[in-house]
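Checked the freezer inventory, then went back to the computational side. Two predictions to log before the end of the day. The first one is the construct we discussed on Monday; recording sequence and tokens without edits.
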Amino acid sequence: MIDFSNFYHKIAKNNLSHWLTTLPAQLAKWEKDNLRGEFPSWQKVLKKFPDAPTDHLDIQSQVSVGKEGELPPGEQAKLGNLLQKFHPWRKGPYTVHGIHIDTEWRSDFKWDRLLPHISPLKYRYVLDVGCGNGYHMWRMLGEGAEFVVGIDPSQLFLCQFEAIRHFANQNQDIHLLPLGIQELPELKAFDTVFSMGVLYHRKSPIDHIQQLKAQLVPGGELVLETIVIEGGETDVLVPKDRYAKMRNIWFIPSAAALKLWVEKCDFEDVRIVDISETTKDEQRQTQWMRNESLDDFLDPQDPNLTVEGYPAPKRVVIIARNPEKRLS
């Protein structure tokens, strides 16, 4: 099983030490509950990776580990086949010893949109909620974050993250825990909290925003990214069944409504910094994600609509500040 002892050792020495009262029992339960399905076979794949020391790690302009030629051609081909065992790769892209993992999402597009607007991450403690396989966590570390924690309950995403970390420096302060936001206590320990592509999956979006707030230090920054519709402060789409073929979609607000929700949760300096249409350049099928993608989710006669007839996805980035003092 994946060993979390290094994470326990790290947080015992920092401002997350109080998390140790609940976290080990939670992760022990997760391990017990996940000794089934494909997880054991993915664990075996991780053990087959070659040791490949490298001085090349680029996490500032991309996520690239190792260089072409550092592995013999046969080992490189074997590694490519092993990495394909973790299909589908949704968030990225990554390059590992010359192997380009062309993921479904060009997650670097989103990163480039939000990076100019957020507070500098240098020396910050950062939490990425619903982090997927951790692509954005590497970019956060590349911006100088001191300690990066991601949470996502997916077995596959955890194994994909561990695959990349195997070839990078495993001693870096970047950690993915298989938990959901609802399983976190009020840590009040992170300088920046990201929630990207999560809100529309939550049955109670206001509770989600409050849970994010509970992880921030006073004065900390929230970076919230989600799907929105056109409209004013009272406009919210509640899909009857599926949205873009996704079943677990509950609320899609307008950008103005979402800003109001964040303000009602007592955040300050709430700003809409970007609204962008999701394009087929940003989300698409590749050899590393051969399932349906955005092209299959949109009306073939009108790409401004989903196949269900709802507005096609637009995504917003909202930035807000946790008050320095609790409001009365």
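The second is the one RB wanted added to the comparison set:
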Amino acid sequence: MTAPLTTRTLGSGAAALTVSTMGLGCMGMSEFYGAPDEQAGLSTIARALDLGVTFLDTADMYGPFTNEALVGRAIAGRRDEVQLATKFGNKRGEDGERLGIDGSPEYVRAACDASLQRLGVDTVDLYYQHRVDPTVPIEDTVGAMAALVTAGKVRFLGLSEAGPETIRRAHAVHPITAVQTEYSLFTRDLEDAVLPVLRELGIGLVPYSPLGRGLLTGAVTQTPQDGDSRGSGYFPRFQGEALEANLVLVRRVEELAAEHGCTPGQLALAWVLAQGEDVVPIPGTKRVRYLEENVAAAGVQLSADDVARLSAAVPRGAVQGDRYGDMSSIDD
């Protein structure tokens, strides 16, 4: 039996948002990781809410557009239980074509209204800029986002994949509650400059892909196929010699997980959770059984020595391949 999840707080002061200790990334229910499965997604979200996973993460680009609609259907009648996060900025056409990044004030307003309609809600709890638009001053983008707060359409603001200087400038315009970025045993570069700034400013961290896009579960043993985007060159860590080297690291995690009587994925999630009370990972899944496994990770207790051993077992420099084949959209 899985114990009910506790809560954590993202942000500080007037920008503080209390959420479940672990969230649920909903992207894969609609796109990228094999064929979409709407019914499985609806069932997974319902089970998540029953288990106390109330922090749900989506974005307008997922689908595109269909994931927000799915999440909206899933929370109908249960809106008061949910801390709902969505994102704007990665523009896509109805046919899925990627149209670039847009942080213009006009687009901020239009994207928010469209997300609210698809989600079937009046207010989004946490609204992120999905990627920083280098052609628009962050002050202009966040200023438009702040106007959404004033209008009651958004409660709190966030950034995704923003660098330290951008975070400072954004926070000076309006308090930022959370920064979402990739963070796991396999991706720790944010520890150098981003995480210190977040802690200085009292901003929470929301790690996506805390399981290394599934690598850290031990379930991936070869390059994914059948419409799974991880099989493309966009994800170098899943290709050829890089994958072979990374699977050696996964074996080390599996050995330590056996000592703790848990799965490697649970140990990897426990490591992320142990990084601080201001850290709320959002592992994604479209299957109830994986959701339940992830939630149980909150019960895996790690000592400081356990955390250090795990960090040493997967040295930062040992992970092979960039996290994206094209890192140009990542603000540094």
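For RB: The radius of gyration is 19 Å. Residues 7-217+276-301 form a domain with the TIM Barrel fold (CATH 3.20.20.100). Let me know if you want it refolded.
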